[in-house]
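Milestone M4 deliverable, item 7.
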Amino acid sequence: MQQRSNLGQAAVAMVGVAAANAAVNVHNAVQIGKIQKQQEKHLESDAAQMTYIRNLVFRLETLGTRLAKTSGIRPGTPEFEDLLRKAMSPDMTYQGNCNADIYVPPTATDKPGESRAIWGKINRTGFLEQPSSLPPDVGPLWATGCKNAQDKFKISAITALKESRKFKHIKETKSDIGMTNLFVTFGAGLFLIIVFLLSIKTQSAVIRAQRPKKSKTKPKRKKH
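Output delivered:
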């Protein structure tokens, strides 16, 4: 009987341990699930922030390329950087040379012209001034994107200059050709007029030469 009692207690103990383990496993699973959800949220937040920075880099590249083509100001100069600062003012305080104070992303409740808080300060090397709520991966993304954009500004300016010179050369060449054609046409017309006049003069001379000559001998008077 004692042996059966011990076996019964052991069975109960095993069931209890199993139940406890199951409870622990459930608790751990819940905690792990919470951690995973928090991590996913964090990753989603970082991904959204990275996407926003990519969009800012693209906007900087697009506006800067357009300015390089149309402004006539050489990229890299203080004057060009000032143009960029004005163009990017809705999204950041662009300090020049890829140094910027980036504003928090806009929301539906923002009012036009209302200033936004600074989200993070970043320099051309990608260093984020602390404190900053931006993820560290933003640094290399901004530094590389802005450097590539600056290179594209210079290429666009050179291309625009070449096209301008080419257009000017073609325009001047066409103008020269037009003047040459005018002179040629005028000269040809003048030549034809001269030839025509000479022809008339020659014909007149021939006509005069073919006319019968009048006798110069005077008739003799009759004697009475």
